[in-house]
Design brief:
about 280 residues, Porin, homodimer
Chain lengths: ~280, ~280
């Protein structure tokens, strides 16, 4: 059976203690390098495959230091502290630079933990939205390879109809809110790595806010995992509802938040990212 | 002139390339170790004091691996990638463990950048709130030393009047929303480090949500800086408005967001953190 493109893209081979190798291919190619979500998923995969790993992911922060290039890469990953039920990780993804030496393209920290059942609640209400079958696919602003790896149905806040630079106003619920149903294409059962990538599927809020395709790229993303492995397995290949909102845009950087739920309205993850933009 | 307690607490001495030493004292003491905000500020201070630093802070993620103990610590900090206008940092704060070896108590990543004027906006409206002078000081749930280092005026969402375990319901704007005016005590001009600490002044949302003092502690915090150094200097010793909201509480961890503005309503920082809680 042929491997799913997602599993191919995040595949890692052990290469000594605290070290893995992988290969950056074109299947999730974005503008100048791979889709940031696939690099974040690869970072998490290194933690998950580490033989000393304790528990399941609680948080992940990935910093995009430079665009990855097609070809091999190395992940150096180590548990910096292991407590009774929590474990802290640091990692760097490196590629050979112009002068032959290894250079860091991505840095990350993660927390894994043994989680136990407790009281629970959500203060982020699941929005009332139509089912995916009733919706149109999200219109894409560019022809990029990684778009073909996702099925995305637009609920609201799609790509502007015209790049006319008309500033989008009206408060947080209208100016920069996007809701989409999304899943891997071809379908693939949800897990921590694919959920991580889904947290980065939203296009930059600045496109929506300004009706303008200004150059923009994520520089840091944080994902908090609220679902455990069992809940993710129950999600199977079902759609995930994603909601993104812009926050503050100033002097070349803005941030946006994301919330992800399964079709039953159960929260799976929350995320935030800071994005470089020009002009 | 005596040094401000904040400056004393975050003071670092160079100790060779990529290395600083400092001292963890009692002036910002919390329950079992120092207030997390002062540790985050110390991490940022190490980046700011590094001789190779480029630009001003854009993002900071701090992971609390273990409570710091009173006494000396070492910060190992290095730029992992320096681009034309951005720079990525990784650091570890270490203390001597029970067996004499250095152990990591805190890990962090940061991004600094040379920022240029661009189009800007905010999708997070500055809330309508009374001026600080008209408000009462926030009632504190515990007698902790670090409370004495901040002047905090309560706008809404204060500590529950009774720890009766009555679950607080009513949606995101009421169930876990707190607004406070805050500043250093004694007063101290705002800068990147003190702003970082202010992002962690909010008490855990789970206290408010459950009217119960369940054990809770931040495990990871991310701060995005929207203000540059110039805007921070203009803030002087004025109050900062902070708003915190809970998001998802599940199986021992919950996350909360924070937004910080100056008295003129200009956004200074946004933040998010994930917090361990018991039961």
């Amino acid at each position: 059976m042929q491997q799913h493109p997602f599993d191919q893209a995040i595949a890692l081979q052990a290469d000594g203690p605290d070290r893995f190798t992988g290969h950056c291919g074109r299947s999730y190619w974005n503008m100048l390098g791979p889709f940031g979500g696939i690099s974040a998923a690869t970072a998490l995969q290194a933690v998950l495959q580490h033989p000393a790993r304790l528990g399941e992911p609680v948080s992940l922060t990935v910093n995009y230091a430079s665009a990855l290039v097609e070809g091999p890469f190395t992940v150096v990953v180590r548990p910096v502290r292991t407590n009774r039920s929590t474990q802290h990780w640091m990692l760097e993804l490196q590629q050979q630079g112009a002068h032959g030496s290894l250079e860091t393209a991505l840095s990350a920290t993660a927390l894994t933990a043994l989680r136990r059942p407790t009281w629970g609640a959500s203060d982020v209400p699941f929005p009332e939205v139509p089912v995916p079958d009733s919706l149109d696919a999200l219109r894409r602003a560019f022809p990029l390879e990684w778009f073909n790896r996702y099925e995305v149905m637009s609920v609201c806040g799609g790509i502007p109809n015209a790049w006319d630079g008309a500033e989008h106003r009206g408060g947080p619920d209208t100016a920069s809110l996007t809701r989409i149903w999304m899943r891997d294409a071809p379908q693939r059962p949800l897990d921590f790595c694919s959920l991580t990538a889904l947290a980065d599927v939203f296009f930059p809020r600045v496109f929506l806010r300004r009706a303008s395709r200004v150059p923009a790229g994520t520089v840091s993303m944080t994902v908090y995992f609220h679902a455990g492995g069992e809940l993710l397995r129950e999600c199977g290949t079902g759609f995930v509802l994603g909601q993104a909102r812009g926050q503050v845009y100033r002097n070349g950087f803005f941030d946006q938040t994301a919330h992800l739920w399964n079709t039953a309205g159960e929260p799976l993850a929350t995320s935030t990212q800071v994005v470089y933009y020009k002009e």
